[in-house]
Amino acid sequence: MKKVVLTALFALLLGVFFSLAPHTAAAQCTMCKTQVEAARTDKDGYDFSGLNKGILYMAAIPYLLMGTVGYFWYRNSRAKKLARK
């Protein structure tokens, strides 16, 4: 019971932290930002509004894959430990 309460409290604190994060944190690396700004001044007809979302998408996929592998690895090793007892 204590573990469930601590997990819920941690999730709540994490949610509060991310909800209070400033909106400007969505800015990407300096190189990408300067390239987009330079391209905007050169070619005013192009729309680069989706660049940040694209970069976040490409950055999130490896983390999601590694998290999934880690979860299944943890679950499998925990099942083996319980089977030994």
TrEMBL record:
The chain crosses the membrane at residues 54-74. Keywords: Membrane, Signal, Transmembrane, Transmembrane helix. Residues 1-27 form the signal peptide. The keyword Transmembrane helix applies. It comes from the Bacteria. The keyword Transmembrane applies. This is Uncharacterized protein. The lineage of its organism: Bacteria, Pseudomonadati, Bacteroidota, Cytophagia, Cytophagales.
